[in-house]
Amino acid sequence: MTNMAVCIHEQGGPEVLQWEEYPVGDLQEGEVRVRHTAVGLNFIDTYMRSGIYPLPDLPRPIGLEAAGVVEELGPGVTGLSAGDRVAYASPPPGAYSQTRRMPGDRVVRVPDSVTDEQAAAMMLKGMTAEYLLRRTFRVEPGMTVLFHSAAGGVGLIACQWLKALGATVIGTVGTEEKAELARAHGCDYPILFDQVDWVEEVKNITDGEGVPVVYDSIGKTTLAKSIQCLAMHGMVVLFGQSSGPTDPINLAVLAAGSNFITRPTLMTYTKKREDLEASAAALFDVVGNGQVRIEINQRYALAEAQQAHRDLEGRKTTGSTLLIP
Description:
By secondary structure, the chain is an alpha/beta fold. Helix content is about 30%, strand content about 25%.
């Protein structure tokens, strides 16, 4: 059986993404073979492609998120059956493929209330929102929070979830169109970050107090100002670096407000099987009951991954993007 995939032979720009045959190989202990129906596009994919996150064993497909159907179980797999609808957002890389082998303990069953496309569009972004809002810094009713890139894939999910939790949401965006999109998904105060002093705006909105938490996936160009937005004992949650790796920080800048900074990842928050299942269940629940809508605003053929990456890095996308095998 021929299997096509988007592979990289070296790390670099979008041009290194190559549509070619790639063998699935024989199932090993604990693995399942999954035929993908939809693949999620995420900023972490660009880190793997470019070399920010070095990858061994090239050539290989990249990608960490997809949904599909279990075709075959390897030795020792329990709790799954051939024909199950499943999704995942986890290493090892390889989601940019028609079919792949995947550790069985890293996939979860998708409930009937969630479509394959929704699952592929939300697992990584949605479970990221879950651990950010419920575990890294637990948002409570009445809090006012700042979320950067509020019209992005994680941002649109997080804004809706934050409103369901009873929070007031300040969000940074790049354009008026993205401001309207964020507002339509629960962002109370969308701010055009490159047109105004957003630190001053946050202070004005909070009557000078600042916010208890800033969720920052931009990194290099925002981190120093994110710290300035904090209230006393507030926390910056740095969970990405779309503008590049952050510069070194003199921790003394945290002293004025006895503030905190943390750099979490989804992979550590879902490393234990029970944590993965709980995170996915929480996500399925808020999507299933309508509190969170999954916005799939772009679809590309998997073979068009180069263009998808260019558009993502060029900030031309909003919400979630799918690659269709």
